[in-house]
Amino acid sequence: MRIGLLRSIKIRNLTITTQEGSYTLYGDSTNLGTFQTANFQIHDQGVKYISGSVVHVFKKVMLVANEGNCALKVESIAPGSKAHFYRDNIELMMEGGQRIRVVNIVDMDNYLAGVIESEGGGGQHVEYYKVQALMSRTYALKNRDRHKKEGFALCDAVHCQAYHNMLRHTPSIELAVRETSGKVMVDNTGMLVTTYFSANCGGQTCDASHVWNTSVPYLETFLDTFCIHTRQSTWTTRVGKYAWQNYLEKEFGVTEMEYGDLIYNFEQLQRKAFFIHPSLGVPLRDLRTKFSLKSTYFSSHLDGQEVVLNGRGFGHGVGLCQEGAMNMAKLGYSYEQIAHFYFNNLQIIDSSRSQFFK
To answer: Are 150 and 358 in contact (CB under 8 A)?
Structure first.
């Protein structure tokens, strides 16, 4: 996989150091020998390589691992950032005359291990990590052309998959990736599924159409009792009465004069797409965005000069519920059972053996 690194900053100056194993440095087609540490800076002709008194400028710089299980430390100097660690190879090129493009050319399993630790952290059951490996691999293969025009497959930000570092702290993640190697999820037409997930669905997953106006057959709403007593299952927040009132009136023409206290009192026993009633045209997702709510799954009532929102869940609620899946794994469910619970009518296949993916 080609993964664009540190895309949130425009790197003009960075230092790379061998962390594990040994590396050979290549400048364009020139072998510059074994690499330990060097500084790389933006230059109008490409990337400037500085090591002690040696200075060169290249169109492309490659740091290539001499054996398996090698790793590099990458640290942006301008602008400054904390150090990040990556396995396998690194490619550097100037991009648009304004930044150094840093790409990690990484084995799929090494990439997935870093993603899972970045997305899910440590301390979870191995079956949960297997589900995450299954989902992350499916996502990576389905979206591998997302940044093709920029010279890599995916980036390291959350809108692709969070990839902050290589796997560093959780050995069971490596086991989970290895034991699900090649496995992906496909729908009943054999196409890779879209692997949405959220932190907590609040006891009922959300239909995809409530969030993105498009129904997805394998992402329908259903009750999920595995997450209802977990850390992020409930929340409460308060919004000023007049802020609530003014937003509804200004954006949707819903006024207290016409609807009275109805605009403050709302009961949502099961997930809905709209506030009060669809005829008012107030999407719950818009209220969530405006008032920075943890989810759209809430009920409300008026308390003096404040609207009290009692909510459930954290995130959009579509697809896999992370806290529910974590609890299922602790209760002894296999990763296949967890995947089938959250994604309706899918199949788990080995992409490495499928002619379709080749």
So the answer is: no
pLDDT digits (tens, 9 = 90+) for 280-298: 999 999 999 999 999 999 9
Residue 127: Cβ within 10 Å count: 23
Query: 3-state DSSP call for residue 353?
Result: helix
**CA pair distance 102, 89, nearest whole angstrom:** 10
Q: pLDDT digits over 83-109, tens only?
A: 999 999 999 999 988 899 999 999 999
d(CA 159, CA 127): 25
Collapsing DSSP to helix, strand or coil, 24 comes out as strand
8 A C-beta contact, residue 5 and residue 156: yes
Q: How open is the CA angle 186-192-196, to the nearest 5 degrees? A: 95
**Alpha-carbon torsion angle 214, 219, 225, 229, nearest 10:** -60
Domains and CATH numbers, the chain: 2-106 (2.60.200), 110-224+318-353 (no CATH), 234-312 (no CATH)
- What is the model's pLDDT at position 343? 94
The number of angstroms, rounded, from the C-alpha of 10 to the middle of its chain's C-alpha atoms is 21
List the one residue out of 270, 272, 271, 276 whose CA is nearest residue 248.
276
Write down the residue that tokens 């497959």 correspond to: 153
DSSP per position, 62-114: EEEESSSS-EEEEEEEETT---EEEESEEEEEEETTTEEEEEEE--HHHHHHH
> Looking at beta carbons, which pairs linking 257-265 to residues 24 or more positions away fall under 8 Å?
261/302, 264/300, 264/301, 264/302, 264/307, 265/300, 265/301, 265/302
Instruction: Give the separation between CA 86 and CA 11, rounded to whole angstroms.
Output: 17
CB 94 within 8 A of CB 43: yes
